[in-house]
Each structure stands twice: as C-alpha cells, then as structure tokens.
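Need tokens for this chain, all 440 residues.
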Amino acid sequence: MKVAFISLGCSKNLVNTEQMMALCREAGYTVTGEPDGADVAVLNTCGFIDAAKSEAIDHILALGQLKAEGRLGKLLVAGCLSQRYREDIRQELPEVDGMLGTGSYTDVVEAVEALTRGEHPERFGDIHHTDDDGLRIVTTPSYTAFLKIAEGCSNGCAFCIIPKLRGRYRSRSMEHLLEEAKALAESGVQELIVIAQDITRYGMDLKDGSTLAGLLRELCRLPFHWIRLHYLYPEAVTDELISVIASDPKILHYLDIPIQHCNDGILTAMRRRSTKAELEALFAKLRAAMPDVVLRTSLICGLPGEGEAEFEELCAFLKEQKLQRAGVFQFSPEEGTLAQQMENQVPPEVAEQRVEKVQAIQADIMDQWNEERLGGVEEVLCEGFDSQEGCYVGRTWADSPEIDGRVLFTAAGKIPAGTFVQVRLTGVSDGDLTGEIEEE
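Here are the structure tokens for all 440 residues:
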C-alpha cells in the first residue's frame, strides 16, 4: 500500500501531516510525497482565507484528474478545509473519497483502511483534543525542524476563524516536548523553530507552572545551534521571557510579533489586547535589551472601519518603528467571524491599494536595512548549491525559512548543506543579499 501526502498552508499544518505520515508508516504502508501511482493520496488543507481555499480546491481537482486517469486510487482530504466545509465538499467535490477533520488526524490509518474497502470515511473528532506523543516523519531539511508546542487558539480575534477550526488553546506537556526536542537534536537538527498560533501563552492552561521562558531554558540545554520563535503575541511578552531571549545565544534575536495594526480603534475592533502606546513601549524594551533585534510582524489593511486617518496612522507608525520584516494582508471577510458582520466595510479595491502602499513602505525599510549590513560578516546557514544561481544559498539568523530573504554566496571549497559559515556581505540582488565566504 502506497500512501502519498501533500501538505498545504502553515508550518503547524505541516507538523500534523508529518504525524499522519508516521502513523501510516507504523501501520506498514509505504509513505511518499508523490501522488502519481499511489493507492491513496492524503491532502492536508488550509481553509483560513480565500487564497488558501482556492489552492486547496485546485489540488483536489488536480488529484481528481489523476484518479480519472487511473494513476491514483483514492483521495482523502484532511485539515481545515474539510473541518470548515464538509457539507460543501460532500456535495460539490465528488473527487473526494473521504475526509478527516482537524480533531481526527490520528484516525488516518483507519480512514485509509476504510477507503481500501470501498467506504467513504468521514471522521470529525473533538477539535479540543490534542495528541501529545510527538511521533512524526520530519520532512524539512535534516538541519531544520519545527517544534509545535501548542494546538488551537483562544485569543478570539474578530477577523480570525482559527479557534472554530482548531479548538481552544492547548499546551503540550513539557515532558513530551523535551523528549521530542531531544530526538530532533540527536538526529542532527541545528535550527529548531518553536511554533504555535501563539507561543507566548504556552503553559498558561496547564496550571503546573510551565511557561515559555521555562521551556526555552530547557531547550537551550540541548545541542541546537539556533532556536527560532514564531509567534509571540505582544501583550503576553513578559520581562522574564525577554531576559531569557536576550541572555542565551542560542535563541535568535528574531522575533515574530503579529500586531495587525497600530490604531487603537482598529485594534479594539479586532479584539486585540494591546494599544499603540503598549506596542511602542514593547518595541522600545526589546531594542533596549537586544540592540540587534530583528522584528517581524503581520499587518491587515482594510478592516471594517479603517478610514484614511487610521491607515495613515499605520503608515506613519511603520516609518517610525522601522520593523525589518512584515507580512501585509488584505482583510478577508471570512464567514463565521465577527469582522464579517461589521459595518463600514472597506471596498476591496481600496484595501488592495493600501496593502500595496504598506508593502512599498516596508520595501524601502528593508532596502535601507540591507544596505546598512553590507561590508559586515554574518553567520549563514548553508542550504546547498543553487545551480541556477551558480553559487551557494543560505540564510542568516534574521531570515526564517520560506518567509524571508536568502544569502547568495561564493566559496572556494565544498560547503555541505546544514553547515554554518561566516559570510562577508557585499551586495543586494532582487532583495537577496550576496557575499563571499570569509576564509579563516
């Protein structure tokens, strides 16, 4: 039995895919990433915003075509799209043979077996339940891996559907996390990326004294070279946490802090818990503790009620704060969210123009920051030789994989992927830094 896996969406979804892969391998199936020729394809989907839904549907139709051509047996759709739109999938996508909701990832083997019997399994278990054993087949490069420390979210932002799809926030036990992290370290992982919808609230639900700061102290005892953090919600960043991040050299001073906006009225409408003054104070505190800190954020343009004054306030805030990284998104009125029902909806074309303006502001900030780095030497994680570019490709500590930029560098000798090297930065090419290895 050959079972193919395709994972869409975020890194948290990828970890769930890796868990399903491990369960299928344990059951004796051959696990692959190639659906052509497979007995069953498992498509783990995102259903967060329109673009993600469209991507998932495109994949379903493409896999359906493989089935029609006799090159694929059955199609099992898992994840957020099936959790959110099970009735629509059932009625409108006959290509789908079975579904798993976000509370039923661990039922994948039973679902595959049901498919082979000609059944149409639909399993939608408790979305507030978390499987804690950490069994996975890691699919990222051997030197990088994610550690998902919690499931779900309880923040209840007005624009977000995730709590309804993924359940309330549930921290994994410190014991299981450290056991999983130790195994990753022993397998050769050099860059550990700590993830959850909100890592700052780790442990608050456990009532056993567990905190993110405490977890990080323990992770730093393991032989990782870099520990990267995604995402820290601003109102839950404590002085203790800042102290731990600032003091241990393994924890990168790259902090992904989604703020979404800066105008107090818009933040209140979003049901965010920080004010503009509090955001400014936090950024100042982080920069005082870590002068080299790189701040990344997420922003939404076009939330209902955002007028020109609120938008210009956001632009002025960004020009003043000079956050080095930002993902900018157009508001999407998702059904089932509070924001969809709000008055004063912003016309989509206006929201789109605002996104473009913010992206232009951020591009200028990035260009200026990159120019300031030229001539310096930075540690780079080599990710291999790029034959198209004709040079090696890697990332600095300030570049998260598949999110930020790259470093294109030359070297006299052979540099294996996963090696840390010192690179002198000499230029910028289409947003990527260029350089040459610094010989010892």
